[in-house]
Structure formats: C-alpha cells, structure tokens
Design goal:
The protein has about 300 residues and is an alpha/beta fold. The protein is built from eleven helices and twelve strands. The structure holds 2-amino-3-ketobutyric acid. 2-amino-3-ketobutyric acid (AKB) binds near residues 78, 118, 142 and 181.
Length: about 300
C-alpha cells in the first residue's frame, strides 16, 4: 500500500464511492476528499466538495491544494440513464475520464482507479464465460464509452507510462442504490423485500447476468491497487464476477430467507440492454495476475443486505 495516501474521489456519492469511503475512512495515514456533482444526503466520514468532474479548473485547484497521489474516478452515467441522452452520456463518461487522466499526468499522480463494465460486450459476445479479450461491439452508449476509455488506458499507459488500474465490473449488489443502471433491479428487489413492499421488476424473470457483492468489489479494488505489477500487467480492465443471477433466483432466495416479496415482472427497454450483456465472464486473468477470489455467493450477499 502507498504510504501517506492522499486520495481524490470523483462521483463519490455513487454505489462504489460510498462503499470505498467507508473502507478508506478506517485506514491510517490516509486523507480522502470526496467530490460529486450532487450533495450528500447523509453526513460523510471524509471531507466533501461539490464538483462537476468535467470542471478541469476546479479539479486542478483541488489537486494543487491537497497534493493528491491517488485518484478514484467514479463519475459516470450508467447504462439505462445513458440511453436517455447518448451525447451527454459520452461527454460525462469519456470527457471526465480525459480531464482526470490529463490532470493525473500533469501533476504526477502515482496511481488511478477507474471502473469499466460488462457493458463493453455486445450481442456478438460469448454469452457464457465471456473472454477477457474478444471483439467487442457494445449495444449502449455507456458500453461504447467504457470501451473507448479502456482503449485510452492502454494508449496513455504506453504514451505517458501512467498507472491506471481498472476492473470490468458486473452488476453490483449493495444497499447504496443510486440508480440509472440495468442491474439495479437486484438492489431494488432486496430493498422492497426489506420494506415489505411489492416490487415491479423491469427485467424478465429468467434474465441471467453476472453479479458481485459490494464488499468483494472493494476488496478487489484494494488488491488491484496494492499489487506490484509488471508493465505487461498494467493497462488491463480485469474481468471479475461473483455469481450469475436472474430476477427469479433472487426472488426465490429472498423467500427462502423469510422475506416473502411479491414480484411482478414488466420488462421494459432495459431488457434489451441486459440481453446484450454476457451471462458470465471469464475472470481467470484476475485470478492469475493478482489472486482475485470472491468471498460472497448469492445467499451470503442477500443475507448481508437484509441485515
Ligand atoms: C449498469 O447496470 O449500468 C451498471 C453496469 C453493469 O455497469 N451496473
């Protein structure tokens, strides 16, 4: 781990940011500044500034003031929301990446983390065990922007030797739901079960997608950020996944755990997005390069979310 970490987080009020803040707050010798375009609903355990991740001048003044040596860049518009306005989605997803990476190069930031997504795969993907490297033709602007940024990671790594670490994430189960994603149904259904409310699921009952529990994501991010890599190993967006889930499997699991949720199925445009993604991904490379091994299966994840 880097000694005296000085960390900047963009898009900090999303699912990943909030969980990472909780984890980083436990660490000694670590200063964290969380930033987001929105303001927090609840008090955070770290400093916060309201910043648009496209505002290069504002970010630069914060980098100069706080002398960060590490950035987690989470600001993004997710798959379902992205389809409402592809141009805005590209702007936020790719141009904020450009802003953050250019500042990181200019200010000698040692290490950056940026999450990619299974959305980089398209209809012509291998639906089962989707390989780490394969032709990719994403179906959403979110996937297109993630794939473009994956390519930029490689390019900037070769051109400027900048150390950007990345995971290609499946749907993430957590209690911090922010919204706008296609895999959000899982967190929404658990919330509904917890609150004894009926739930209308926007995906069909048998729609299979790869999923992961948030604690495994945070563990993976930390492992990846702390690994001493050879040059060859940097510049990958590593596939990782926990388990394969369908809405029906989740409904059954909730009932087994004593939460008799009533689920209605009413698939909408998000069904097409889900069907363009793989059902499972091959995460062998992450296992080989830095020892990835998930700890949470479906039952353990749902139990944790309900507790
Ligand atoms: C989404 O559903 O858009 C995200 C993702 C899979 O990247 N959760």
């Amino acid at each position: 781990m880097m000694k005296n970490q000085r960390i900047l987080i963009t898009g900090a009020l999303g699912q990943l940011g909030l969980a990472l803040i909780r984890e980083l707050s436990k660490q000694e010798n670590t200063y964290v500044l969380a930033t987001d375009i929105n303001i927090p609903k609840n008090e955070l355990s770290v400093d916060f500034e309201q910043v648009n991740a496209l505002d290069k001048n504002r970010l630069e003044s914060l980098i100069t003031k706080h002398e960060f040596n590490c950035i987690y860049h989470f600001a993004a518009i997710l798959s379902a929301n992205g389809e409402q306005n592809p141009f805005v989605s590209w702007d936020v997803n790719v141009n904020s990446f450009q802003v953050v990476v250019s500042l990181a190069i200019q200010h000698n930031i040692q290490r950056l983390f940026w999450p990619s997504s299974i959305a980089v795969y398209g209809r012509d993907k291998n639906p089962i065990n989707a390989p780490q490297q394969v032709d990719m033709n994403p179906h959403t602007i979110y996937g297109v922007s993630k794939l473009a940024s994956e390519k930029l990671i490689r390019y900037y790594h070769h051109k400027y030797n900048i150390d950007i670490r990345s995971l290609r994430l499946p749907g993430v189960l957590s209690t911090d739901l922010v919204g706008g994603g296609t895999t959000d149904y899982a967190t929404e259904m658990v919330q509904a079960a917890k609150n004894k409310m009926p739930y209308t699921c926007f995906l069909a009952p048998q729609t299979e997608l790869p999923m992961i529990y948030i604690d495994d994501v945070i563990m993976a991010i930390q492992q990846l950020m702390e690994t001493d890599f050879s040059v060859r190993q940097q510049a990958h967006s590593y596939n990782i996944m926990g388990f394969c889930l369908t809405p029906r499997k989740l409904e059954v699991q909730l009932k087994k755990l004593g939460f008799p949720v009533v689920v209605n199925y009413n698939p909408d445009y998000r069904q097409q997005i889900a069907e363009s993604w793989p059902r499972t991904t091959d995460d062998q490379l992450a296992k080989k390069d830095w020892g990835w091994s998930p700890k949470f299966d479906l039952k353990k994840s749902v139990r944790r979310m309900l507790s």
